[in-house]
Amino acid sequence: MFYKVLEDVKVIEYGNMVSAPFCAKILADMGAEVIKIEKPCCGDESRGLEPFMNDSPGVERSGLFQYLNLNKKGITLNPENATGRKILNQLLKNADIFVENNPPKQMKALKLNYQRVKQINPHIVMTSITPFGQTGPYKDYKSCELINAHMGGVGYDSVREVDISHEPIKAPAHIFGFQAGLSAATATVGALFQQSVTGDGTYLDVSEQESIIQNMHSVFRYYYNKQIVNRTDVLDRAPAHILPCKDGYIHHANMEEAEWWHFVDLMGNPEWAKNELFKDYTSRSQFWDALKPLILDWTKEHTMDEIYRGSQARGSAIGALYTAKDMLADRQMAERGFFAEVEHPEIGKLKYPGVPYRFSGIPREQPASAPLLGQNNEEIYCGRLAYTKQDLVKLGEAGVI
Amino acid sequence: MMNSAFLKGVRVVAMTQVWAGGWMGGILSDMGAEVIKIESNKKIDILRRTIETEGDLNRGPNFNGYNRGTKSCNLNLKKPEGVELFKKLVKISDVVVENLAPKGMPGFGLDYNVLKEVKPDIIMVSVPGFGSTGPDKNYISYAATVQSIGGLEASFGYPGGEPSTPSIFMADPVGGMYGVLAVCSAVYYHHKTGKGQHVELAQSEAIMSLLPEVVMEYEMTGRIRPRMGNRDEIMAPHGCYPCNGKDKWVAIAVANDEEWQALCRVMGNPEWCKDEKFVDQFSRWQNQDELNKLIAGWTKDFTHYEVMHKLQKAGVAAGASLSTEEMNHDPHVKDRGALIELNSRKVGNTLTWRSPWKSALTASNPASPYFGEYNDYVFRTLLGLSDGEIAKLIGEEVIY
To answer: Using 50, 70 and 90 to split pLDDT, how confident is the model at B391?
Structure first.
């Protein structure tokens, strides 16, 4: 864990890939005990996804899996099997929180829908994360990060300089699956607070599509413009753009007059900046096509770091398009200790993104590496559920664990 | 819509502005907390003055959308009496949330150490762009600067192309959601231990925490993650294809051979489907440029919804690339009540979204507060000031 905030809270995760595992990771980072249930054959699908340590694949070598499952315990279990389900019910009986992201039909078939789960444990907070939620015409539609992004509107509303002959695109990697996990964890901790006050359990139906819709401030512009024929109809015309520089890219985002004039100062107060066309924000927006090449002439001669730090030190709003290399070398992240070094028995010591929050009243702790496949079987099955070691052999042979 | 009243009885003082801050107030209010938003004529939230408002502070569509359900009161913290009233309010509250620049609250003489003296178990949650500590804490933190440092922008764009300037700004909703998570976990900890504390978080780090592949790829292989547009590491087809209509598109993702065969069937098994270039996943992935053109030749004769429903019926993941307008009319989004029209009485009726979860604890549809609408409630009802005292404070521009 990073901070012991949710001490003694017991979580069962029956999740796969990103959304539910990230929700449970957030709880584990805050000190809850998370027992992650994985398929006996091969575990969470994310174990099979890039990047792999030294480009050498293996179930314990995926960077995505390792990050998503820091600080958890892991067991193998097949709830499709009657004995497996019985074991899962025993675990649920003693849990405070149950997190899952399986298709609603599958959960019902496994008798793991909330109606059933609350009979086993009325006190439990159950959080289900699915692409479209538990109700509505698309609830059983097949989906993934790509489909979610486009159905959530952030494909159509993704880029500023739209060429409508090019397709709408999604944001990188699994960012929306992670965002859904974050939304789910927030609601789950809210429900946990209520549980601790009243003793009541609750069910949370989290929709990834709805989580994605939150990114769309174009909702408000649409409400006034009223009609969208193509992607350019609700564009924000502000002169804020990504521009190439000598060794990368910067994001020019000056809005206030003073911010712009600080940037002009950084550029050495060129003559062209006095041109009437560029006198204020509105005019700079209108004549951006004339302004852009003039700025580019200067940015191309300067490095990302020079422009980012030079402008920010003067009070000008410019960002730098950081790659992983830049993030890991950044002085701000270093000073704040954002990246966490974690040792893993197979892939060794690596730096992982840490947590963005700091609790003043709770000491920061060293996070633990993700569980090997079935790592905590003996601890949980023998230590807590009174199976013998020989039982485990049989349960393994029978495909239960 | 107050859709999960978990924080009933929790009072939050919100010293918030623009998106991430206003957004926290809206979600906390959705969760049943009483959120008192401090506003002043000295510095009016820019979202109360966007172009659509036509000069009416109560018509800001973004403002009303984010700050739904909160209670606005006016307090001028540049006056010592204003600061004292703020402290009195803190005394009867559980949480203070703020997203000012790191020098903001200390500038008013209201940093955590001061608030702690007023109320030893107060919880304070700060959500600045780059964090409250470190050499760059005072850098200007607009969504664009924060999410570029957070690594979202360098890998955002078409394959082989330059980075695209995003028109989505995730630093605010993501930073804001983490802020609400911090509030929920801190009130839980307070309930268990009786202790308050200061939680601060950096929006830039919040973005990084959602993009581990970017860092892990470099850590594990030494490579910088390329821009991939709609592409996947191994799935193909995995893209967005043109449909019948102006600027209409559908996304299709095929994960295995079974789904590929289902896609071919729906397309009417054209001859090219049998080409050995597309025979298995690896071949399809290698030849995806050609494959994408062929699929686009099929999708263009149908609407994006037609393609989506046909493919979903056959067990293939597909979804229309929806505009906000289409989403507002989409039968599923409507059925879920994901977008709501705020109950805004006489002005500024606004389309917004509720928090992205549903639970059995559902309550009323909230309104967005007029500027200073709850002055009477806060100063008379909560703080017990008399009419005379209130009139005097208004005259002195303290309640202002």
So the answer is: very high
- Residue A318: CB atoms within 10 A of its CB come to 30
Of the listed ranges A88-97, A281-290, B185-194, B267-276, the least confidently predicted one is A281-290
* Contact between chains at A319 and B144 (C-beta distance less than 8 A): yes
Considering the domain B238-329 in this protein, what is its CATH number? 3.30.1540.10
Average pLDDT, chain A: 95
pLDDT, mean of residues B215-226: 97
- Each residue of B92-111: pLDDT tens digit? 999 999 999 999 999 999 99
Who among B178, B188, B208 is closest to A6 (CB)? B188
Tokens 């906390």 belong to: B28
Q: Is residue A40 within 8 Å of A399, Cβ to Cβ?
A: yes
Give the separation between CA A24 and CA A5, rounded to whole angstroms: 14
User: Is the Cβ–Cβ distance between A248 and A321 less than 8 Å?
Assistant: yes
**pLDDT value for B61:** 84
Which residues of chain A neighbour B319 with C-beta distances below 8 Å? 141, 143, 147-148, 150-151
B201–chain A Cβ distance below 8 A for any pair: yes
Identity of the residue in A136, A157, A354 whose CB atom sits nearest the CB atom of B335: A136
Could you give the 3-state DSSP secondary structure of residue A396? helix
Q: What is the pLDDT of residues A354-395, one digit of tens each?
A: 999 999 999 999 999 999 999 999 999 999 999 999 999 999
Count of positions (residues) in chain B: 400
A355 with B211: Cβ contact below 8 A = no
Kindly indicate whether the domain formed by A241-323 is annotated with CATH number 2.60.120.260.
Answer: no
Contact B225 A144 (CB under 8 A): no
- Tell me the CATH architecture of domain A10-214+371-397: 3-Layer(aba) Sandwich (3.40)
